[in-house]
Structure formats: C-alpha cells, structure tokens
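Example (one chain per record):
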Amino acid sequence: LEHPNVVRVADYDLGGSIPWLVQELLPGGSLQERLRHGPLPPGEVVELGLVLADALAHAHVQGVIHRDIKPDNVLYDGEGRPLLSDFGLARARGGLSLTETGELLGTPAYMAPEQIEAPHRVDRRADVYGLGALLYAALAARPPFQAGSPLAILDLVLRETPPDLRELSPAAPAACALACAQALAKDPERR
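Predicted structure:
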C-alpha cells in the first residue's frame, strides 16, 4: 500500500525459516505510548481520525482489510506524522489472509463484534469499528471496554454499549462522541 499515512515496507521474505520484513524507521513511538500520559487534545484526535480514515479508505480500495486497528499499530515519524502499521492480520480481496488458522485474531478491546462471531465475514466495517474504538481511546485514554480478562472483554464487545464518552472525557466534542458511538455500533449496517 502506497499512502503517506501507511508504514512503508522496504523488503520482506515470508517463505524462509524465519519470516522477516524491513520497514521505515519511525522514531516517534506509538499512539499507545502517548496515551500513557493521558488523552490527546480533541483537535489532535480529529486530525488523527481524518488521516487514519483516509489511510484505511485507501487500503479498502485496494481490497485490504486491516482487522487490527489499535493504538499500538499507529506509529509516529520524526515529525509527529501518524502512520498505520502492522497489516499482519490483514485480509485481502477474495478472503485470503496472512493468517488462516481458525483462531480468533485481533485485540479484544478493539475488535468488532463480527470479528468474534463470524470472522470469515469481516469486511471494511470492522475497520470502521476499530477506528472508532481507537479514537474513543485517544479521547478517554482507555478503550471502550475494559474487564479482567480477554474473554470478559469479548463478552462486553458482543453485549454491552460502551460507556458514554462524554462522561469519561467531558472535553470531548459532542460531534466526536457521536462519531465514535456510530462507529462502535454493534450492527455493521449502522456504522
């Protein structure tokens, strides 16, 4: 994928005994590291959402679904520009995937409900959900769902509505809270 907000891969070999890839150096750390210091300013979150949505739209046009949108997979270059990384769980047009083991794949707190219930039917709307969860986390400094175990988080993703973002982050603009709520809809048709 050639996009200014997608990490560039210079070379790779997946066929040897030890798979490897070489990507551009990104010294600015991850979004996850930034969130350890608290939520991001709302204006920064809006800009982050715009550039990541554009990067995902580009991937979707190319027939690629990321399937693992989360703060650890947003890296920053030396100028502070965010780049989407780690397409290791990506699914290509036609349903081909780098991982076809039948295991549940993704990060529970950022997974769309359909990734849990019917991973073979996941489409671009799962990435919309992941982006909504990521932006929620950027505004609240925590993911939409938290629990004591990955299984408990998966249960919350399937059955509960996330806490109101404005209660966790009163500085979050109403439009951002509404966008996150819509992106986090259980039904993919409503995203």
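Caption: Strands lie at 9-13, 20-23, 64-65, 74-76, 82-84, 91-92.
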